[in-house]
Specification:
By secondary structure, this protein is α+β, with helices and mostly antiparallel strands. The chain has three domains: 2-84 and 292-322, no CATH class; 103-161, no CATH class; 172-290, D-amino Acid Aminotransferase, Chain A, domain 1 (2-Layer Sandwich). It has nine helices and 14 strands. It has helices at residues 31-36, 55-69, 87-96, 137-149, 209-219, 223-233, 270-290, 305-312, 319-322; strands spanning 2-5, 26-29, 39-40, 43-47, 75-78, 104-106, 118-122, 157-161, 172-180, 183-186, 190-192, 237-245, 248-255, 299-300. Strands 9, 10, 11, 12 and 13 form a five-stranded antiparallel sheet that branches. Strands 2-1-4-5 form a four-stranded parallel sheet. A three-stranded antiparallel sheet has the order 6-8-7, covered by helices on one side. Helix 5 (209-219) packs parallel to helix 7 (270-290). It is globular, with a radius of gyration of 21 Å. 37% of the residues are buried. This is ATP-grasp domain-containing protein.
Length: 323
Amino acid sequence: MLIFIGPNRQRGNLHGFKVFPDAPAYKHKTYSWLFRTRRLPAATYIFTFIDRLHPRERRLASKIYHHINEAGAGFKALNDPAAAKNRYRLLRTLYDHGVNQFNAYLASDAPQPNRFPVFVRHLSVSLPPLTQLLENQDALDDALTELEQKGEPLDDLVVIEFCAVPYQGEFYAKLAAYRIDQTISFNMMLFDEKWYVKYRDVDHMPPDASAFEAKLMKENAFQDEVRRVFELANIEYGRVDFGLVEGRPQFYEINFHPHFSSSEFASKDPQRLENVTLAAQRRLNALNQLDQQTDAPAIANISDSEITAFRLRPWRNFAPQRY
């Protein structure tokens, strides 16, 4: 059994499991459930959306993460909520270790980037950038002042140096790869004429892109680089998004959430459909390896003053309202 821990609104990301008859048994539970339940059944627990948690919730979830991993046979947990790096810490770490050519800065620190252009994003949520590309220091200072005046807390904003080049013509490409415990799996590519590549129609791509994608898919490309990024990030399950600049991977963010959306399999391009099916099957195989077939009895949840306060004083916590 796999138990994904995350917000209710993300249950749809698992609907793609229905495409595969050999999908592992799984459940989706919320952090509110995790903090309230008295018993934890034997399973592999996958903590998702860690970056959305309040620090108090991360601390409490981390205690349960360690409790599960110390329970013995039949129990496993992935993604320590206290150790996993958020967007800013990840980008700064990758720059400091020479993995990325670009750096990131907290907006609250009155940053003066080493290179321009830059753009501004939220730190705690995966939403599109709040600005276009800003070409110089004056433009950045003006943008941060305007954002703060509009009510954006600067300590939840990160300034990122732009580092991307078109893949072909006007098309930019976003590559991706999953880590599922010890398995690294190259994922489908996304394409857009805009520098910020977000999901569009599965067949929106330049000519011959599916053939290039198939080559990378068969090679399970960039495994060593991707593994190092996840290890630096202290993340055991997730999807890293990256681009190629002069043939060198540049890593942009790691998403914790599971994604088996059925829209992946809507391609009308035979090669593209073969690619996404292969990528999904690899992820499924890795998840099946985590599906522990065990008769181990459930264990008691942690006994902790914070979890007691969570259960008895709902006005002092956030998870029921947000998740």
